[in-house]
Specification:
Layout (H helix, E strand, L loop, with lengths): L15 E3 L2 E3 L3 E3 L16 H12 L4 E8 L19 H11 L5 E7 L11 E2 L14 E2 L2 H21 L3 E6 L4 H6 L14 H4 L1 H14 L5 E8 L8 H13 L4 E6 L20 H8 L6 E3 L6 H9 L5 E3 L1 H6 L3 H6 L14 H8 L28 E5 L3 H12 L3 E5 L8 H5 L8 H14 L3 E3 L6 H7 L3 E4 L3 E3 L13 E4 H5 L8 E5 L3 H12 L3 E6 L10 H10 L5 E5 L2 E6 L2 E6 L2 E6 L3 E4 L3 E3 L4 H6 L3 E4 L9 H14 L1
Parallel strand pairs: 3-4, 3-12, 4-5, 5-8, 6-7, 8-9, 9-10, 10-11, 11-12, 13-14, 13-16, 14-15, 16-27, 18-25, 19-20, 19-25, 20-21
Antiparallel strand pairs: 1-2, 17-26, 22-23, 23-24
Helix pairs in contact: 1-2, 2-3, 3-6, 13-15, 13-21, 18-19
Length: about 650
């Protein structure tokens, strides 16, 4: 029955007290810096608060703004909210006013980027550069500057209180300034802020004391801290277990346990290769050390898992970050038992962290509306048209859904026996199965919206004439490009197209060359090696898997370090032998012998043969996704979303 809750999720949707603050449920939208919604004067804008309001309206109990800079030298990203001056209070007050319409507890994270700030001039406890992502040696903070920063945190917390925020959360995780003081590998100071454990935690202790002095008794304060840095010489779980009771004694109201810094493995924002709830064990251990609530985070995307974590006593609250990007109504749908209606985060890291670290506005593959909520506050329904979509891959399913939501009638034609297109193949290699969640979600949505999908049909002029569409949309995807290299087709080695291998239409031997170094090539190498093959990847380009987000690619490259796989990039092929290849790599001639098979994966080409059928019939036609030009899911789905709205 519609509206009946399938699972009560009673633990996730039970209230909880954090100090003096009562939160209506245990679901947290944690801080995420998305690099939008701040104007040239540093004030938050409607773009920022409408993005957050969509999640508050969706029923989430607690929302934390993704980093507020406490000092001009502390900007993590150029478009993060600065709060180092009173002049920012007015706009922040408008934001809290909007969020408080929805019975959500709303707070600000207090952040200083330290050596990981995007600024050219960085400061840190010691002049040691970040391990990854950002470049440059930071300047060592003077004693006077440290005192200035302690005051800055307290002053910033007071501004947040005056602006109407229900709480503040101190960011002492992820390799930013406070973490750099805590960890012995980044803090080489010889004064009272370095050396011993007691000295390295001194900055955080003084910040907490200054905040409590300025905000007064009872104002809720939490600390987000790493359970593990996951780098040699970094902050450890043992350190956190030692510190946690001290923070409780200081009057901290909750601990938010995360992990990782720039350059760690696992990374702070893990991809689909990582297990769900990958940092939960850290929160669980800290919970044994304190009596205040503990928040767990890390690839928790399923409300049922979140409820189980709380039910089993492993954490008191659950932070679901990217899951809130993918679906702002996550909480509402979960509360109503509509788990299947939730748009899933697939852990691709493409729209969110990749774009943010590239200093672009972040968004989401599954929800291109992220950051544009203020533009779509009222759905503008178009005059209904009859639309024929050719191709049931990700772009086709996405554009069909959006078109129906805007009042159009849609039919989808697919020449194969299954919807999903290349996404089905992309989900086959190890660690990539969540890509199919994208397809399953769209199919459920289209079934709910009663969109007809006709399988095993290749369109012709007669069929188009019978359907009589007003608009045709070509989303027929792409096909593997066959490289033209002298001698490639004159050897004794068996040649395979990558799509045939993934579909198991062909079975390579045990000593295989993958020709290509794109995302598909490396994932195929992983796939073949897991089946027992010895795999050599020969890439004529200079960079591997450029189509993947860095966080996602990091996990894949770690997997490819295992025995049985060798990677070569920047190569040039000299000749194909009867059962081998001779090539130049790093200025040296290399020869691979006793090769049984070559897998071709050097790119894709567009497949848009049906466009002419619409043009000949005088029907408006659009081509999107790989059919327009080979691209990533991120690009294809963003394009589909735009077209679906514009029809």
């Amino acid at each position: 029955m519609a509206g009946v809750r399938i699972l009560p999720l009673e633990h996730l949707f039970s209230p909880i007290k954090l100090g003096s603050m009562l939160v209506k449920n245990r679901l947290v939208m944690p801080p995420m810096s998305l690099n939008f919604g701040v104007d040239e004067d540093g004030c938050v804008t409607e773009q920022h608060w409408e993005y957050l309001a969509a999640r508050a309206r969706g029923g989430t109990g607690m929302i934390v703004v993704g980093g507020g800079a406490v000092h001009p030298f502390g900007l993590d990203l150029p478009r993060m909210p600065p709060i180092w001056s009173d002049r920012f209070i007015g706009a922040l007050g408008k934001m809290t006013e909007v969020i408080h319409r929805y019975d959500t507890k709303f707070g600000m994270q207090l952040l200083h980027g330290g050596r990981q700030a995007y600024l050219g001039e960085k400061v840190a406890p010691s002049p040691i550069p970040a391990l990854a992502v950002v470049k440059g040696v930071p300047r060592e903070l003077t004693h006077a500057e440290i005192r200035e920063l302690v005051n800055a945190y307290g002053d910033t917390a007071l501004r947040c209180q005056r602006a109407g925020f229900d709480f503040v959360e101190i960011h002492a995780a992820h390799g930013y300034l406070i973490t750099e003081f805590l960890a012995s590998n980044s803090n080489l100071r010889q004064d009272e802020y370095g050396g011993s454990f007691e000295n390295r935690i001194r900055l955080l202790i003084e910040i907490i004391e200054d905040i409590k002095t300025k905000t007064g008794p009872g104002y809720p304060i939490g600390v987000r801290i790493n359970g593990e840095d996951y780098v040699e010489g970094g902050w450890t779980l043992t350190d956190t277990k030692r510190l946690a009771p001290l923070l409780e004694q200081l009057g901290i109201d909750w601990l938010h346990i995360s992990a990782g810094i720039y350059g760690s493995m696992p990374v702070t924002i893990p991809s689909m290769y990582s297990d769900h709830a990958c940092f939960l064990h850290l929160a669980e251990e800290i919970k044994k050390s304190v009596s205040i609530p503990v928040i767990a985070v890390g690839r928790i995307k399923n409300p049922e898992l979140a409820d189980r974590i709380i039910r089993e006593g492993r954490a008191d609250m659950v932070a679901m970050g990217r899951a809130h990007l993918a679906d702002p109504e996550l909480a509402k749908k979960a509360f109503e038992g509509r788990i299947a209606d939730i748009s899933p985060c697939i852990g691709c890291c493409k729209g969110c962290i990749e774009r943010a670290l590239a200093l672009e506005e972040a968004t989401c593959v599954m929800n291109p509306e992220v950051g544009r909520e203020y533009l779509f506050k009222k759905k503008d329904l178009s005059k209904s048209k009859r639309i024929l979509v050719v191709g049931a891959g990700p772009a086709g399913l996405s554009v069909a859904r959006m078109a129906v939501l805007h009042g159009h009638k849609v039919i989808i034609l697919e020449e194969s026996s299954q919807a999903g297109g290349m996404a089905r193949l992309a989900s086959i290699p190890p660690g990539r199965s969540e890509i199919m969640e994208l397809i399953h979600y769209y199919l459920r949505e289209l079934n709910r919206l009663r969109v007809e999908i006709r399988l095993n049909i290749e369109p012709d002029s007669g069929l188009i004439a019978a359907i009589k569409p007003d608009v045709g949309i070509i989303t027929t995807g792409s096909l593997p490009e066959i490289p033209q290299i002298a001698g490639l087709f004159d050897t004794g080695m068996a040649l395979h197209i990558i799509t045939d291998v993934l579909q198991s239409n062909s079975t390579p031997g045990n000593r295989i060359v993958v020709l290509g170094g794109n995302m598909a090539a490396l994932q195929a190498a992983d796939f073949l090696a897991e089946k027992g093959g010895e795999v050599f990847v020969l890439h004529r380009g200079q960079h591997f898997a450029e189509q993947m987000a860095p966080n996602d690619r990091t996990y894949l490259m770690e997997r490819l370090k295992r025995p049985g796989i060798q990677l070569f990039k920047g190569i040039s092929i000299n000749e194909f032998l009867e059962n081998g290849i001779r090539f130049i790599w790093k200025g040296q001639v290399e020869t691979l012998e006793m090769i049984t098979d070559i897998i071709l994966s050097e790119g894709m080409r567009s497949n848009r043969n049906t466009t002419e059928l619409f043009e000949e019939a005088g029907i408006e036609v659009h081509t999107i996704g790989d059919a327009k030009s080979p691209r990533t899911f991120f690009d294809a789905l963003a394009e589909a979303d735009e077209l679906g709205r514009a029809l």
